Amino acid sequence: MTVSANPTSKFENELKPAPGTEPARPKKHFSWIEPRFAAIWAALGLMLVLNGIFLPRSVDLTTILSILPLAAFLTIAAIGQSLVIMSRGIDLSVPAIVSLSSAVLLGVSDGSNDRLWLGIGAAIVVAMLAGTVSGSLIAVLRLNALIVTLAVGSIVTGIGIWYRQNAVAESMVPAPLAEFASDRFLNIPVSVWLATIFVIGLSIILRKTIIGRRFELIGTSPSAAHLIGVSVRLYQASAYVVAAALYGVMAVLLSGFIRNPTLDVGSPYLLAPIAASVLGGTAISGGIGNFISVFGAAIFLTQLDQSLKMLGMPTAWQMMIQGLAIAFGMYISEMSSRRRIG
User: Which residue in 336, 203, 326, 206 sits closest to 272, CA to CA?
Assistant: First the structure.
């Protein structure tokens, strides 16, 4: 029995089509029109039609343009959460990381235009450090992701409170960032263009590169990935780091949009990114995800939230509906996974 000296190369060669054959496209993993990914677009279309009939103000162009930045912020956070879920994890530290990154941005920049880039860099680095801690504890020490990210979130929240009280009690973001975050290009908010760039760029990496295929494999079957020489722990830890970087970017954009963010700026992003991820078709069992559909889910949730507010729905009911949305998304994800295995 001969063992290949380079099992990874053998695996990558097997992914290539045989000479003289057409390249096979894995429909179950990559096709964004697969039912699990198309469902959210159907739901979004149905909601817009119902809103147009019963709540016309919610589908006015002005209203839609006003909520699109919120959908863009949620999209960026949800993409990060999707990466974590695809690696068979979960991240409950998102609100804490967003709040701390926002506080660091304010503290380091101190409202000065000259220190803007230093503040942005510090905010993203702090977020990545938090992601590195979570990723290392989960991937290397094999600790439970739910408990680890909850604990890290608690620690980060404490650090954020201490930092905000001692360094930036009353601060505003530098004017250029505020102008950029509120600006529009072709009448579409800049934040939406940035979210689109992240969606397209990460989708290409996930679908068209060896790194992306390996990442999907470690989520779909960690044991198979390990057998062919893929560093499962490295990819799992990296998912938390990249996700945290996205949270940091989102915190910078959100802070610029708000102009004077408070310490609880990250509070809305505990359940919402999870909801957008699972409603967008990301498999809780790992490996399967589509960022384009996650974008659609973020728009759906933002529009739903706006509609409920226009109807005067109490916050408690809004939270319950969001929880039901997560449960429904997980149910669809589980049913799709069973169908795929069957």
Answer: 326
Instruction: Tell which residue, 282, 294, 304, has the closest CA to residue 90.
Output: 282
Residues 6+ apart with CB under 8 A from 329: 275, 277, 278, 279, 280, 297
The most distant pair of C-alpha atoms in the chain lies apart, rounded to whole Å, by: 70
Model confidence band, residue 337 (pLDDT cutoffs 50, 70, 90): low
The predicted-structure confidence for 246-294, as pLDDT tens digits, reads as follows 999 999 999 999 998 988 999 999 989 999 999 998 988 888 889 999 9
Work out whether the CA dihedral 80, 81, 85, 90 comes out positive or negative: positive
Question: What is the rounded CA–CA span in Å between residue 256 and residue 179?
Answer: 8
Looking at the DSSP bridge assignments, the partners of residue 185 are: 188
Write down the pLDDT at residue 334: 66
Is 77 within 8 Å of 274 (Cβ atoms)?
Answer: no
Cβ(124)–Cβ(246) under 8 Å?
no
Kindly give, in sequence order, each residue whose CB lies less than 8 Å from that of residue 330, ignoring residues fewer than 6 positions away: 278, 284
- Please name the amino acid found at residue 204: I
Question: Global pTM?
Answer: 0.86
Task: Write the CB contacts of 253 (distance below 8 Å, at least 6 apart in sequence).
Answer: 72, 73, 76, 181, 191, 194
Compute the half-sphere exposure of residue 85: CA atoms within 13 Å on the CB side of its CA.
27
**Could you give the CA distance from residue 283 to residue 252 in angstroms, rounded to a whole number?**
29
CA 231 to each of CA 18, 141, 218, 241, 335: distance values in angstroms, whole numbers, following the listed order? 27, 14, 9, 16, 29
Whether 191 has a pLDDT exceeding 70, the answer reads yes
Return d(Cα 213, Cα 235) in angstroms, integer.
11
Query: CA–CA separation, 250 vs 243, rounded Å?
Result: 11
